[in-house]
């Protein structure tokens, strides 16, 4: 890789890192391209070279964040044969992500509604987030079909799980994890592996 390409990638990463931090702290509407230029140490005109609009920059960040969330959450879920254990792991991994990736969790919590209700320019971000929610909901649908869910709709369970990053007190998340497992899953012994 040439030095020029390496520098270009480094500049782009500086922009993305600064913007992600600002979006998580102030929200999409609270951040200007000038703010991102100051925080990244990159000229505003160069930011526009890489990202023609704030929406395009935000979408790239959002899609990367959701990709990371999905990869971590499903890393132990996909290969699980027991749906009860898969749901427990899904809840555990989602809560762990919220606890360990505070900046990203704040960004998701702050901007979730903005993305889902967007009418102007965040279509790729919305589509990506909806795909994640559909994947989560399929796990709960499987649980309902196999009769391991309590009296809760898969869509409701999905909304609850996808909102754990909005809990302001991180110390509560472990208790919330245990509570969610009890609320969502029927209390019956797990089948042995």
UniProtKB/TrEMBL annotation:
<dbReference type="GO" id="GO:0003677">
    <property type="term" value="F:DNA binding"/>
</dbReference>
<dbReference type="InterPro" id="IPR036271">
    <property type="entry name" value="Tet_transcr_reg_TetR-rel_C_sf"/>
</dbReference>
<dbReference type="InterPro" id="IPR009057">
    <property type="entry name" value="Homeodomain-like_sf"/>
</dbReference>
<dbReference type="InterPro" id="IPR001647">
    <property type="entry name" value="HTH_TetR"/>
</dbReference>
<dbReference type="Pfam" id="PF00440">
    <property type="entry name" value="TetR_N"/>
</dbReference>
<feature type="DNA-binding region" description="H-T-H motif">
    <location>
        <begin position="32"/>
        <end position="51"/>
    </location>
</feature>
<feature type="domain" description="HTH tetR-type">
    <location>
        <begin position="9"/>
        <end position="69"/>
    </location>
</feature>
<dbReference type="InterPro" id="IPR050624">
    <property type="entry name" value="HTH-type_Tx_Regulator"/>
</dbReference>
<keyword id="KW-0804">Transcription</keyword>
<keyword id="KW-0238">DNA-binding</keyword>
<keyword id="KW-0805">Transcription regulation</keyword>
<protein>
    <submittedName>
        <fullName>Transcriptional regulator, TetR family</fullName>
    </submittedName>
</protein>
């Amino acid at each position: 890789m040439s030095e020029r390409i390496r520098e270009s990638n480094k500049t782009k990463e500086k922009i993305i890192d600064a913007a992600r931090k600002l979006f998580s702290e102030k929200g999409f509407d609270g951040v200007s391209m000038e703010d991102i230029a100051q925080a990244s140490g990159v000229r505003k005109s160069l930011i526009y070279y890489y990202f023609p609009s704030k929406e395009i920059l935000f979408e790239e960040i959002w899609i990367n964040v959701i990709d990371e969330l999905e990869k971590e959450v499903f890393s132990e879920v996909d290969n699980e044969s027991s749906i009860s254990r898969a749901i427990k792991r899904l809840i555990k991994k989602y809560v762990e992500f919220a606890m360990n990736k505070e900046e990203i969790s704040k960004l998701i919590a702050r901007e979730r509604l903005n993305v889902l209700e967007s009418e102007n320019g965040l279509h790729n971000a919305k589509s990506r987030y909806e795909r994640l929610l559909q994947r989560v909901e399929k796990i709960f649908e499987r649980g309902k079909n196999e009769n391991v869910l309590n009296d809760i709709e898969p869509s409701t369970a999905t909304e609850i799980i996808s909102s754990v990053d909005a809990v302001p007190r991180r110390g509560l998340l472990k208790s919330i994890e245990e509570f969610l497992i009890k609320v969502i899953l029927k209390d019956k012994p797990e089948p042995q592996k």
